[in-house]
């Protein structure tokens, strides 16, 4: 089945009770049993819920996996993956990581005796020197946030296989429309479904997809035992969102490209971070592993002035100044004062998050209006 058909039908069939085409919102905690232990496959909604299961099947289909799991947030999904480990185990993670993931690793799991190495992975072979007999997990985000670096999933997968290390990819920015990490050799794909999969800025949710049955069994055990599941209403909303993922992503990519080109030609702009430029450091890898370049981009202005950047984001009218990304509406963010404000100036400048850096989540409005909005804000 082609991807554009999968987003509508993948893992879905009409509800067995009355043939409802969309799965009903099974807003129930428990299920009647005929005799103790005998039921229709559902005993308690932390363990299984038909609406959530419909969504989990859709997640699995989109990522070409065999098993999908839905969680109450993206971070809850990551939390479940790290719980596969035990004290003494080591993790190698991308250094340009989503802030919440970094916080979960360093402020929660580090104190349980798990060791994390944060490594630049623009060149995949860099990670080899960090692998030892305790290494159990490689955690990668690509494209990265907010600098849109690209990491070679296939190359990392080869290294992970060679050393028998589990390899997980946070596929939130790309979505399965643009890249399918399991097909490139990853063991686990993770999503903040809060972003593009939900797509309408109205649900917080996380997802995992795997191919391997034994690994799936361990993750289902953690999902049920730790209990960070999502509710049936949210499951329904994300399932509805997914049905337009391909048409939304196509427009996100078209608008992202138009804005990247506009900004690159603007006299006030210093640099535009977007993997579609052939001058981008890993443009060839992006071209090989992604179908298109996505709707996320960042830029800096000449002179690198903090106050000027604040003024630009304040003057934007169609781009809403807000955290998050991946919804139908365009959003702008200023990492230095928002997502990366807690990092000392010197350290954040070292990783490239300078004072004038502005990040855009380009929505699916008309590009003419979006460019006009940027034009007036830059004047
Ligand atoms: C938002 C985000 C997360 C965290 O997901 P939540 O749903 O907010 O818990 C993880 N990774 C990336 C890349 C994200 O953008």
How would you explain this protein's 3D organization?
This protein is of the alpha/beta class and 379 residues long. The chain has two domains: 240 residues, Aspartate Aminotransferase, domain 2, CATH 3.40.640; 134 residues, Aspartate Aminotransferase, domain 1, CATH 3.90.1150. Helix content is 35%, strand content 15%. The chain has 13 helices and twelve strands. It has a seven-stranded mixed sheet with strand order 1-7-6-5-4-2-3, with helices on both faces. α2 runs parallel beside α8, α3 packs across α4 and α11 packs across α13. It is globular. 47% of the residues are buried. The model has no long low-confidence stretch (mean pLDDT 96). The structure holds pyridoxal-5'-phosphate. The site of pyridoxal-5'-phosphate has 16 residues, from α3 and α4. Belongs to the trans-sulfuration enzymes family. Its EC number is 2.5.1.48. It is an enzyme of class 2 (transferase). This is Cystathionine gamma-synthase.
